[in-house]
Specification:
The complex is a heterodimer of chains A (about 230) and B (about 220). Chain A has about 230 residues and is an all-alpha fold. Chain A is built from 7 helices and no strands. Chain B has one domain. Classes of the chains: A mainly alpha (about 230), B mainly alpha (about 220). At the A-B interface, helix 4 and helix 5 of A face helix 6, helix 7 and helix 9 of B.
Chain lengths: ~230, ~220
């Protein structure tokens, strides 16, 4: 049953991604000022939101762990953080490619970019901390606390384009600005691709959780084999 | 006020051995020396990044002090005894933070004149506001650093993990402190647009003090 759900979700994500890619490449026109390179935004922005979604999941799961002390929440927090890091990497790399074309440099040290990188490093530190602790409950407890602290940097990254004067484009989505700054067709495409990437993120978290569950079963069997 | 007794205990044992105080002070001076090779120390441009330079030195020296904060209690299982004692986790944590804060402030106050001599910076006109900024920035660093010191105390990679976790997370405070220190070292007062940085620094201190005091009990109790 669980396997079928994963397969179904996988097929759905695959179709969505292919459909979106086709429309982005062949149906949508070039942007007026930037030309074809603007298409990278259809991955840049949704990947950022998918990463934020993962970090929020990690925050909630970590807080739940501290309240309920159930290792299942710890596994969710870890899986969500790993997947979030992957999407944040997509966000950073697509941003760098766009920057190379539009600004002429790979990396501009402005507030949004810097904070996105800090965020990535903080969560990478979270995974490093997990690796350094052997005892499962000790690991779960300490990393949950770190995850809560780490979320502060996500909040700052999200707000960075408003707080500092940056080279990074300001908010464009109508739900955030209240105005229609970009063509509705293009904005809808952003939402569609967000849907695709967010579903992909959910699928990846489920797969990762499954691996974690299996790992625990293997560890249990190994301990039993040792006892015999 | 039990936390003051914990702080006094830490400071007393540190003053008797002076192990982390001496190590981080000499380390700070070595870094000050190293920086002079990275760029021309007599150029005018030094004034523009003097705050950043100084705070990098403090951050490196701070990591040494903070590493010892909880690690000092490891021999003879002192940490277990402290946790088992009727002192609350928050008090224990606050005491350790205050002790590290005092040690780090001492190092900073010694480093400032040395920095002034090496790089030809006149820091005396704004000495008092400068000390205030040092105190705010150092408090942010020690509150977060002591928490991570407790978090990483049992790890074999402790010395590596603490700076790896601490530096990215304390960046808001570090950024603000660097900026404000540069302004003050140039002889100007903090006013107008720069108040944003002061607010950021104070906000950081408050948020992380509250968050740390709320969560430290969970870390200490096994």
């Amino acid at each position: 049953m669980a396997k079928n759900i994963r397969l179904g979700l996988g097929a759905l994500v695959g179709m969505l991604l292919l459909r979106n890619l086709y429309i982005i490449l062949f149906n949508l026109p070039d942007e007026m000022e930037q030309g074809p390179v603007y298409r990278i935004f259809y991955y840049h922005l949704p990947a950022f939101f998918a990463a934020i979604l993962c970090y929020i999941t990690a925050l909630v799961a970590s807080s739940m762990y501290l309240i309920k002390k159930n290792l299942r929440y710890d596994a969710i927090a870890m899986s969500a953080t790993e997947v979030g890091l992957a999407f944040a990497a997509v966000n950073l790399i697509t941003g760098m490619i766009w920057g190379r074309i539009s600004w002429g440099i790979w990396w501009a040290w402005d507030a949004r970019l810097t904070w996105a990188l800090i965020c990535w490093l903080v969560y990478f530190g979270y995974l490093m901390l997990r690796q350094a602790i052997d005892d499962p409950t000790e690991r779960a407890k300490n990393s949950a606390v770190l995850s809560i602290f780490a979320f502060v940097s996500v909040a700052i990254t999200y707000k960075a384009i408003e707080w500092w004067r940056t080279q990074h484009p300001g908010p464009v989505l109508s739900i955030r600005t209240g105005k229609q700054l970009i063509d509705p067709v293009m904005e809808n495409m952003l939402y569609m691709n967000f849907l695709a990437l967010a579903t992909l993120a959910v699928l990846m978290v489920i797969i990762r959780l499954n691996q974690e569950e299996m790992q625990r079963q293997i560890d249990g069997l190994r301990r039993r084999a040792h006892a015999i | 006020m039990v936390f003051l007794q914990i702080a006094a205990k830490d400071l007393r044992s540190e003053l008797r051995t002076k192990e982390s105080l001496n190590a981080s002070l000499s380390f700070a001076v070595v870094i000050l020396l190293l920086f002079s090779f990275a760029f021309d120390p007599s150029s005018e441009a030094v004034a523009e990044f003097s705050g950043g330079l100084l705070w990098l030195v403090f951050a490196f020296a701070g990591a040494l002090i903070l590493n010892r904060s909880f690690a000092r209690e490891l021999p003879n299982d002192c940490l277990e005894v402290l946790i088992a004692s009727p002192v609350s986790g928050a008090q224990l944590f606050l005491g350790k933070t205050v002790a590290s804060f005092v040690l780090l402030m001492t190092i900073e106050v010694i480093c400032l004149p040395i920095f002034g001599i090496f790089y030809d910076i006149t820091w005396t006109p704004q000495a008092l506001p400068l000390l205030g900024i040092f105190a705010l920035g150092t408090w942010g660093m020690t509150i977060l650093g002591t928490l991570f010191s407790a978090l990483t105390v049992n790890l074999s990679l402790r010395e590596l993990m603490l700076p790896m976790l601490l530096y990215p997370l304390m960046l808001p405070a570090l950024m603000a402190a660097m900026r404000l220190t540069t302004i003050l070292l140039a002889g100007n007062a903090i006013a107008g647009n720069d108040m944003v940085w002061l607010r950021l620094l104070i906000g950081f201190d408050i948020i992380f003090t509250v968050l740390s005091l709320a969560l430290v009990e969970t870390i200490l109790v096994r």
